[in-house]
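Structure ticket #2291
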Amino acid sequence: MKRKNMWKQYTETQSEELEQLSERYKECLNLAKTERECVSLGIEMAKAWGYKRLEDCIAEGTRLEAGDKVYADCMGKALVMFQIGTQPLDKGMNILGAHVDSPRMDVKQNPLYEESEMAYLDTHYYGGIKKYQWVTIPLAIHGTVVKKDGTVQNIVIGEKEEDPVLVISDLLIHIAQEQMEKKASVVVEGEGLDLLVGTKPLTGEEELQKEEKELVKAAVLQFLKENYDMDEEDFLSAELEIVPAGKARDCGLDRSMILGYGQDDRVCAFTSLFAMLETEVPERTSCCILVDKEEIGSVGATGMHSRFFEDAVAEVMALTMDGDSLKVRRTLRNSYMLSSDVSAAFDPLYADAFEKKNTAYFGKGLVFNKFTGSRGKNNSNDANAEYIAKIRQVMDESGVGFQTAEMGRVDLGGGGTIAYIMANYGMNVIDSGVAVLSMHAPYEVTSKADIYEAYKGYKAFLKDMK
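Resolution: structure written out below.
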């Protein structure tokens, strides 16, 4: 079954809508490179669209009615939004779920050191990366420092035109014979991903220079103190993420693609967010989840394995019905969900890694994965045929371009999303998303056509899935 290339059938109006959406999307990618930044931006946008904080509604005893919109966040790293539908909540919700964490490097708690009069920050990589891809590219620091008195300082270094950027060095080719013989997985070791942050020693009074042996490290600490009121001890309660510096850009001579960091999975997160914000009063309550920690197993308090989402549903239930725990479980069981995460786009340069009949292609629309997992569908949700038939009907009636795919050849690899976790509630869940080239690389590539179809598909799902 061949799917249509969506570019061949767009009207002038649709092409304009596609470009406008792409600009909105790139702006969000530029503003939010960490999960905290994504949640903060999501809350800002939600408030602008009339969403109220769920905790405020609970404190005030506000009764939620059809059309009311509320949000809740978990530790500033996960976000859930609800728009109450005209049907009782226990009839089920239409849920869009995506993750906002992306592969990166995290600064360790005791990171700053000097070696041969060069200052470094020690890091630990987060999520699945090819470590060699992160050397010799311009990098930025995004993060949060919390001092003992509770003062919070947000830090972004390397994004403004006038900012310095940071880098991880690599060995020159002239003396890299031994390095070049290593496997790609160990060409650059995890302990070698240390960030070069300075080479200029502190200058000043002679006494200071006599007492202080590590003058380059001292100069870095002076910079942090003067600019962010940060002492070395404050690294202990800091979350600093190392990400590629620079903005998302149009890609290709025809500007048909977008190149940028973190499109896994923010391409699904932001299109889901746009769809959620623009949905009018639905029949079934609409819900959008932007969650953390997917890249490391959806664990922790802000990952999908936590009780945060279930608790938020219970709180909404208490403000719409009677808060009966059985009705909460019924609500979850009767819900429909798109677990929205990216798929691997077919790459002709690596054709042997794919099975051409069952892979995702650029320009052919929103991707549905009946199953993910690996080696015999292990850890896969594997959506049922009845649910897929409903999805097909909604997409076709709304004119949404879509395709089906799986992740690579059968015995080659695989992947997973939050779908199997949500399926534990007994709800119908299917993996969906956008095809991505160079997934998990510092810069990933997506098709504007697929972004547009995903946005349309998510809107149709929230509005018409019954």
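Closing remark: The chain has a mean pLDDT of 94.
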